[in-house]
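As described in the Methods, two query proteins were run sequentially through the folding procedure within a single session, without resetting any intermediate state between them. The first query and its resulting structure tokens are shown here.
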Amino acid sequence: MTVTLKDVATLAGVSVKTVSNVVNGYAFVKPENRRRVEEALAATGYRPNVGARNLRRGRTGFLALMVPELSIPYFGELAGLVITAAQKRGWSVLIEQTQGTRSRERETLFSLGPHLVDGALVHPEALEAADFPSPGEIPLVMLGEHAVDVPIDHVAIDNVLAAQTAVSHLASLGRTRIAAIGRNPARGTSSQRLAGYRSGLSAAGLSYSDELVAPAEKWHRSVGAAAMRSLLALPSPPDAVFCFNDLLAIGALRAVAELGLRVPEDVAIVGFDNNEESAFSLPSLTTIAPDKMALAEAAIDLVHRRITGEKTLPAQDIQTPFALEIRESTRG
């Protein structure tokens, strides 16, 4: 038989309203009443009817998360954290991957609507301002570094400063031929990390050389390895490399080893994202570590506030923390 709030209230000796307040997480319940309700909930095995509750509120109970590639560990890890943060607020998450193409991002964005989800978190790579729906159509939060001039809540780290921090670390080790792997004009993330790379070189009194900046259509391991081989084949090869994500850096580590060179003695390497894999590579990878949990929770908090009533507030731009995680690929 289905257990109702009235059944729980009868067993606990409180009102149905008090049971409802406990079930919905309201703070202002007397401790003794809360204890009795929680014991009654456990004893009866009560489970809230989430579908009915959302129907009464005029909601679906779902959020959408749009990311480029789940095969890239950063996005897989971020998706898991977003799901955890959303569950705390009572939402389930639908995940779409777009491969970072403008056409697929537009198609996915315009397939969303109040009939499907209550709000969406989008991590675009190629969207332009004209691609976004009109403000107010659906609560949106934009994640990541792709710069789009639209009045939408945005959560990201300071990618320019983070990249500059990585390059400054390499320069502090006495490296003077610092290369970069990951240039891709089609990706906003790449443009910001390239800007930080150039800023880091300038701050260290080092000149920029276009031959030391390797392109990368995809930020995958194989691309990082191929780019590293090309850089090491230069007449004056680099003595350090900043890779725009950890997968490129893992590929670069492999290429250096294949050529019989040592990391960091011959080439120091820094990645970006602090994926779990980076701590277990050999040598372990120095990397920029975004606070992914803070990013996920800030994004869910923003979309929650938009959905539950704060629709007219000006768009917010939130920067979450990052740190430089120093490991063996620069420390030795």
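Immediately afterward, the second query was submitted; its sequence and tokens are:
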Amino acid sequence: MVIGTLPNPRDSIAKAVRERVAGDFEAQHAEIWRAGERWFDERDAIWRVHGDTSMFVGGIRALLLQALHPVALHAVVEHAGFRRDFWGRFQRTSRYVAMTTYGTVPDAERSIAAVRAIHRRVHGTTPDGRPYAADDPHLLMWVHVAEVDSFLRAFEAFGADALTSAEADDYVRQTGLVAAKLGVLDPPTTVAELTATLESYRPELSGSGLAREASSLLLVRPPFTGLTRAGYHLLAASAVSILPSWARTQLLLPALPITERALVRPLGRSAMHTLRWALTDDSSASS
């Protein structure tokens, strides 16, 4: 074999990650980065956080947290292809976050309108008789704070740089601007408010059988093979390492603080560095 035809490891890693998380990356990249006015720019905290590879860890943590709300999880199970299309849902969420952060204002507004239209069609009753609707502001708030807290905690633990306290508050406020357009009422505007809102949902949460099934899909049975699978397990372990202790308890996930501080988090930071290398090429660097 000619040396020049050997596969580039950067390309292999980038392709595996992009296809699983973003789907058709090239098409989405072109759509997101077309010319036009945007809500945010590179000076904004939301731009920095959502553009960092720590979002892979944050996304896993967010899904683990969100699964703890039995009503929200039942809506996903009944209407969003929980078992059949779990990773497709992950891709759609990834696309929505990217579009509302980096896309033009008209494109971001279209993405929000499309999600709101879907939410209006999602309603039903849980097995224990509780009615639900995906556009219920209370459920929307839970999904929002679980995501924002996860993205922020992942960036703090594994991000390429650090946010000041004021910048962290800016991040919460900026994500709230988008959430309000989706139907969240009075989203948190500071880290303190975010933490308080997340804590207020704890009496409603449950590590049910479905929640543990969701965690198994994320942590035990990812759709990867070989080295990519091993790398994913490291990302998943990193996500678990920054979960609140009460969430771990409900999901029956072990707490190994010494091992995590000495091994998992340093390896997680190394994995983030490798992913930044893999996902940075001449074309993306110039975007």
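Confidence is low (pLDDT under 50) at residues 1-10, 282-287. We note this only descriptively and draw no conclusion about the first query from it.
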